[in-house]
């Protein structure tokens, strides 16, 4: 069996960075080099001001960096020196051409595969770490086989199940590690080589070995199942609001059935993040491609329900504020798609803001980790209005009390822990009355807020 001494990871993002840092931490005998075309990102990985915010990440990086963990823009050298290469590049939804708005854009994966084919001079195991549509490995193999040297490649699928905000914990103690490969002697040997790396810290029983296609499909399916639970509870939240039921009580009552379980049943303003929507749409596209329109429609509804939930939240705000928010200041607490990350991809904040700005509200935002320029970039990307208009209507603050000053309403978008500890009396005193609070995460103590004088509206809760 090949003993791996050198690993290269293409892509130093939210997955490549933390995953490789943990492999380097747990396997000091293996040299791990993370490469990226983004020179600024690579430079940041070399400082203590890492490009991504993730609790516990800096400590892990500091332990291994310079010892057996390296960040570089020299992609060719990284590939050439490694026996095993992880592909951890982004696979966003296509924004053009065939499959636009649904299929995964695999151009970065293809470019990486071409690069590996071009520069490799020795045999390699290529590991799909990115989330990919089932049967992508076939295309990767085809590209890799198009080289003139006599280099042999094995392609494995090793999807990543970490969630942002808890990445280090998830990597240190995963529920499982999934490795798929060809069921040939060479394929099985490659599976074993990767298994041996994870076995440095993961119990062998938690390492699942499968066929290549099962592994690729399991990742899309797992995300679809998780997101489906959120859309299910969010659909019930709408019914709760008109019937007087309380969605947190309903979720608890449902979740105590062990066949269902309590996790991923927290009603919210809608799920965000770079994965769920993209991966479900990818699954929908695959089902359509393979002639399964009913299956496609079934999964697409998970995304439709999520769009509805975000829109419903914004419409509720407008309706409660006497059907007009024009010129009114509305303060958003949180911009990240969940707490403990600076990632804003597909965050509900973007869509809620877009709805509010369409009604000419003045939106002011505070988020503890998201940089101002990321918020404007998110809004400009939508192309609903010009950058100048976004700048005029959207204000970003470094202090939550300033953000809320003079506001007619506050909307909690992200479940940051610090929001609970604010001086809510002080915030109330400086707001326009009646002071509304829309809790998109059911995060705060509503009884306390009502005693202060806030008019509280929460997800899945009617008049309390
Ligand atoms: P990301 O955008 O943070 O990182 C991808 C990196 O790849 C970028 O830094 C980019 O510059 C680099 N890159 C792109 N093309 C390249 C090339 N040809 N050569 C070198 N570098 C290149 O993305 P991410 O969040 O880390 O996601 C990566 C993959 O992992 C995606 O397929 C995603 O679906 C999957 N995934 C993400 C998460 C998550 O929580 N973010 C979890 C599990 C799986
Ligand atoms: C997800 C998957 O959980 C992870 O396994 C996969 O590898 C990558 O995609 P991530 O997007 O980082 O991870 O975050 P996750 O914790 O799944 O949350 C996604 C969204 O759902 C967030 O906006 C979160 O706030 C929301 N959510 C989550 C809810 O609204 N309710 C819940 O009960 C759980």
The major beta sheet can be summarized as: 6 strands, parallel
- Based on CA atoms alone, the radius of gyration comes out at 24 Å
Alpha-carbon distance between the termini?
64 Å
Q: Please count the helical segments.
A: 18
- Helix coverage percent: 40-55%
Q: Averaged pLDDT, please?
A: 97
Side by side, the strands of the main sheet go 3-2-1-4-5-6
Q: What general form does the structure show?
A: globular
What proportion strand? Answer: 5-15%
Report the uncertain regions: none
- The strand count comes to 14
> What is the SS-derived class?
alpha/beta
Explain the overall architecture:
It is built from 18 helices and 14 strands. By secondary structure, it is of the alpha/beta class. It has helices spanning 16-26, 39-45, 57-64, 75-81, 107-119, 136-144, 167-172, 185-198, 212-243, 247-255, 276-289, 293-320, 348-358, 372-382, 387-393, 400-404, 424-429, 446-452; strands at 6-10, 31-35, 69-72, 84-87, 124-128, 153-157, 177-181, 207-211, 329-333, 362-366, 394-396, 409-412, 436-439, 455-458. It starts with 5 loop residues before the first strand and ends in a 6-residue tail after the last strand. A 6-stranded parallel β-sheet has the order 3-2-1-4-5-6, sandwiched between helices. It binds nicotinamide-adenine-dinucleotide and uridine-5'-diphosphate-xylopyranose. Residues 160-164, 223, 226, 230, 264-266, 268, 271-273, 275-276, 337-338 line the site of uridine-5'-diphosphate-xylopyranose.
